Amino acid sequence: MLITRQDRDFLISELSIELQAKPDGSNKNLIVPTCIYCGKTRGKMGIYIGKETDKKKLFVSHCFSCGHTTKDINQLLDDIGRPDLKLTETADFRPVTELNPFFQLEEGDEIDDELAVVDMPEGWKRCFKNPYLKERGFTSDDYDYFQVGTTRGLNFRFENYVVFPIIDNKDIAGYISRHVWDKDKIEEYNRKARRAGKYEVRRYNNSVENDFSRLLYNYDGVMEDETDTVVIVEGVFDVIALTRKLELYDNRQIAVVATFGKKISQTQIYKLQAKGVKTVVIGYDSDALDAINNTAETLNEYFDVYIAKIESAGKDWDEMSFWDIYDTFSGNLKTPVEYKLNTIQVQL
Ligand SMILES: [Zn+2]
């Protein structure tokens, strides 16, 4: 069916009002808060409004909860009780081949963002002062904006760890637990422990209930429909260091989140889209060229993407001075193509 631009815009605005739907960050999908077929809330249903391609037809809808797909806009209009909006011209109707127009998923795949609520380790209590965190540059703002605590000698499994809850929609969805010793000290201790047949200590002792690919650290710092730019970094300490050094604590337009490693999952992408994020800046360690290029390519389908090119490779955000970081953001944001060209030249 040939849909004119006028018809298209008119239908998008009518569907938005009728279904209280909003475009996602990429402007390619209308996210419908309540699926009209299964009634599931939380925006599992989408209607494709992006550019029509061979694979993706305009107004194809799909729900990731019940799996219902409606290929024909007129059918959808019947189903929502608005037959008055139906298009009459059917001369150029082309069959829809692609079932899932969203997020380039394979048929049958589903964005699964369900999360279990997790208990913090027994004895955990927030702290506002800690020698290890002080050494890593923590300020009183950091303690206020980013919860962290210890088990205060009440839980031997978490002795000498600092534990950060991962909060998602105000629920605790996991925690990152970091031993306060440095790598050398842990290795030395473990050598002795092995000989003595004692327990070894691990650098991290994290929650196991939810897969970390479904989580983003500082997700609640992304404000729905307000935050348009998100910087993605690898870990909790990167989020806090960058927020501190760029003074982003109360900034509602820009937020820093961690993907727990050098890649981003479809669920994490969906979570950012669902809050209306438009621009993503990749702030991964610049020694991970392939990981950065791959992530940029993945993200480029859904967001405007930039890469923060840190000049001193191998440096973490929490080791960089304010001015290093300032220079990176003011003069060294690259598009994915620029970055690729740039890094290829370096390798030559
Ligand atoms: Zn549904």
Structure commentary:
- By secondary structure, this protein is α+β, with helices and mostly antiparallel strands.
- It has 3 domains: 5-85, DNA Primase, Chain A (Alpha-Beta Complex); 125-210, no CATH class; 214-347, Dna Topoisomerase Vi A Subunit, Chain: A, domain 2.
- It has 10 helices and 14 strands.
- The strands form 4 sheets. A 5-stranded antiparallel β-sheet has the order 1-2-3-4-5. A 5-stranded mixed β-sheet has the order 11-10-12-13-14, sandwiched between helices. The chain has a two-stranded antiparallel ribbon with strand order 6-7.
- It starts with a helix and ends with a helix.
- The site of zinc ion has 9 residues, from loops.
- Residues 35, 37-38, 40, 45, 63, 65-66, 68 line the site of zinc ion.
